[in-house]
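Record type: ASSEMBLY
Status: queued
Input:
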Amino acid sequence: MSALTDKAKALLDAPVFAAFGTINPDGAPQLSTMWVTRDGDDVLACTLRGRQKERNLRRDNRVSVLLTDPDDGESHVEIRGTATLSESGARELMDDLSQKYRGTPFPEEPADRIRVIVRITPTKLTEHN
Amino acid sequence: MSALTDKAKALLDAPVFAAFGTINPDGAPQLSTMWVTRDGDDVLACTLRGRQKERNLRRDNRVSVLLTDPDDGESHVEIRGTATLSESGARELMDDLSQKYRGTPFPEEPADRIRVIVRITPTKLTEHN
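Status: finished
Output:
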């Protein structure tokens, strides 16, 4: 486990969209843009059951999260780590993330959309300033 | 090969920093922030010989480039493709990229910093609006 740096914490605490990288079944990288926050030194995100990234993480839980400073694109932090998935509390996390990024609670969703919390324990941080 | 969409072209033509994903030797994802541009339907970036991403691409040339709309973070494009590497013209590409992102030519570099052009031929595009 690796502690987050002050810069990583500042980027995670701001409404900065993260690039979220997992590994597809064929071994190639898969990227998507994600809302993120943190719980201490863990990075938290929320996806849907059945999404490609969720299926990828169930097969290979290694993930990389890239945060680029919106005021200086050449300044960025890569957080590599391992993900654990859970469902309890996912609705509350979606509301927290929606408040952070949109300033409003997250809309109601159909019951068949199962939200999954992705908790990433960092193993390596790389900063570029 | 996959043609770029209008949205992908617009994001590539703007000074939007890209998330650039490759595969590390251990099979885990590696992400970094990159300057990018395009030549027709190919995505162009420029790295340094010996950088992790360059060594990764020589071993496994599958890459994913994620562009997030700076005016609407929930709107983004993932461009997956395969990379070919070359060195001829890399200095000119660095100047073009520096003009695009900084508005100035790229500074002179020591002769032992060997620039490498990464040309990505798209194989799959995913848009989220």
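Annotation: Residues 90-102 of chain A form the longest helix (13 residues).
Annotation: The mean pLDDT of chain A is 96.
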